[in-house]
Amino acid sequence: MTESFMDLPVDLDLYSDRLDGLNDSYQTHVAALLHGELMTFLPDGLYAQIEANMPIACVDFVPVERAEGRISRVGLILRESPHGRVWCHLGGRVRRGETLRAALERHSLETIGLELDVSVNPQPDAVFEWFPSSIAPADGTVFGDDPRKHAIGLAYVLGMPFEGASPRGEALDFASFDPTNLPADLWPGCRELFTRLGITERAGN
Question: Model-level pTM?
Answer without folding.
Answer: 0.80
